[in-house]
Amino acid sequence: xxxxxxxxALAGAALAHCAPRSFALTASPSVRRWPTVQKVLxxxxxxxxxxxxxxxxxxxGTPLAYPAAGRIALDSPAxxxxxxxxxxxxxxxxxxxxxxMTLVEDGKLRLDQPVSxxxxxxRVLRVAVDPKNSLESRPATKTMTMRNLLxxxxxxxxxxxxxxxxxxxxxxxxxxxxxxNYGIRLRRPGYGPQAKDLVDMIKRLAELPxxxxxxTTWKYxxxxxxxxxxxxxxxxxxxxxxxxxxxxxPLQMESTGFHVPASRAARLTTNYDVTPEGLGPTDARESSxxxxxxxxxxxxxxxxxxxxxxxxxxxxxxxxxxxDRVQVLRPDTVRLACSNLLPAGVxxxxxxxxxxxxxxxxxxxAGMEVTLSDEDRQYGSVGTLNWGGAACTLWxxxxxxxxxxxxxxxxxxxxxxxxxxxEVRAAVESDLV
Length: 433
Fold this sequence. Notes:
The chain is an alpha+beta fold. The chain is built from 11 helices and 16 strands. It has an 8-stranded antiparallel sheet with strand order 2-1-16-15-14-13-12-11, sandwiched between helices. It has a two-stranded antiparallel sheet with strand order 3-8. A two-stranded antiparallel sheet has the order 4-5.
């Protein structure tokens, strides 16, 4: 997802290229057309590689445009548009990151504060000697911090299909530590009964070693799910209530949350897998697991949202914390959140998930990748922020060009992820010329 995929000053300078302002979004017929983007979407829908998709786009202060194609499900006549509700999986992470930064701004949380201050269950940590092959471990010698949770440097691991048979990620799967997986996806071979809530998840994690010493390496992890419990314990509120109070309601992200209520169910999309027979539902809209509130609110992969909602999240960051005269964060907090927060000496090599090869170096902020130099720039400008989700969703903010993009479709194919996102990004750049 280029996911998973030092020069912090460069990124900070790009984010501060203009004075703090109250950013506003307008949605009207745009002067700018996006014919190449539209052609890409039409092609993917026409060849039935996806059921539908939409892109929210605004560059250089232009009114929002929403090129779209297809339907919310192959068996539905409803068009896929900016109000279609999608599972955004790992695009939840920037929201959790910003929520954590509101606590930093309020003086209730420090980036270099030990995690054990808030999660005493983790006062004693161990590190796997060879996490690929066994769970044998030794005592940890370094302290896990909040910065580590926010930058995938905590030493925690993650189960994803790309983990293969590695011992530690497999133990996560077998012991039900796969937050963000719901419904029929949990009936795949090897998935144990899931942790019932965040406290249960933490207890199960405490029984397993870390994959690495905290603060020593970038490793994609469930750190943002752990951060969800940190937010709950510090704020005294459930994660969904805190999101609503500090981010979603101020930004009028009305269709974003951890489940889809009955009043919005008609806009929920179907999520697909690619099968030998074509697209097959992996979470059908009529029976979706997201129609019921979860008992474990996954800060790493649990939200649903719309292109219309998530582009407002990006607009708030472009506005240095303010959107439509409503302030969510102070400008200095935004600059910090969107800068390179990686521990000194730790780099992030973004990996092409199709080839498995590292493709560029990047920084990492509060739940988002940060472009730090022209040498490692893949698209956009220095200071560009991005992150994606497992169902082929992508969010990009390019402060130097006032660029704001959200791509939404619903397809769990890893090969498709790499190709469609590359083509959409290339199409955006082509239409900007």
